[in-house]
């Protein structure tokens, strides 16, 4: 699904562009994925698990653009990917009222309003497609993300204990949140 480009002004006055990433963005997106997974334990991959080739990333981005059930919005600042979110819609009759969201922003851009703006866009798209419930997961200890999600109206509805295990053996819970749109 293609997201129509939109300019936003960040809290620090920088201009950002929200748009769908294309195959031409593959190298930048791979760098972005590696950086976000390097900066925090609160994403579901380690940097060495960002092993897509350029061709694989290009195919992935092309498939998202062609999908009727998925949209990806990337935040570009000075031509560089600094944030990304995905909305996955359900296609089955029993579950098409639901959508799942995921988001990550480079650490140096935390607190500038990118996450809030991305959630507003994803929520609007979900409503346009008849979605009445969004869900997401976050990892125990990610208080910044939890605060954003709760600010956007999400509420914890389940806890999955010990579902995350870090390299050092630390086990963390994963929290499941929902937002009702109607």
How would you summarize what this structure contains?
The chain is α+β, with helices and mostly antiparallel strands.
For this structure, what is the CATH class? Alpha Beta
Order of strands in the sheet with the most strands?
Answer: 1-2-3-4-5-6-8-7
The CATH superfamily is identified as Gcn5-related N-acetyltransferase (GNAT)
Secondary-structure-based class equals alpha+beta
Largest sheet: 8 strands, mixed
Helix content: 25-40%
Number of domains: 1
Q: How much is the average pLDDT?
A: 95
Instruction: Label the CATH architecture.
Output: 3-Layer(aba) Sandwich
Description:
This protein has 182 residues and is an alpha+beta fold. The protein has one domain (6-135): Aminopeptidase. Helix content is 28%, strand content 35%. The chain has helices at residues 26-39, 54-66, 114-128, 143-151, and strands at 6-9, 15-19, 70-77, 80-89, 98-105, 133-139, 155-165, 171-180. An 8-stranded mixed beta sheet has the order 1-2-3-4-5-6-8-7, sandwiched between helices. Strand 7 and strand 8 (171-180) form a beta hairpin. The radius of gyration is 16 Å and the shape is globular. The mean pLDDT is 95.
Structural topology:
Blueprint: E1 6-9, E2 15-19, H1 26-39, H2 54-66, E3 70-77, E4 80-89, E5 98-105, H3 114-128, E6 133-139, H4 143-151, E7 155-165, E8 171-180
Parallel strand pairs: 5-6
Antiparallel strand pairs: 1-2, 2-3, 3-4, 4-5, 6-8, 7-8
Helix pairs in contact: 1-2
What distinguishing features does this structure have?
182 residues; Aminopeptidase; eight-stranded mixed β-sheet; 4 helices; 35% strand; globular
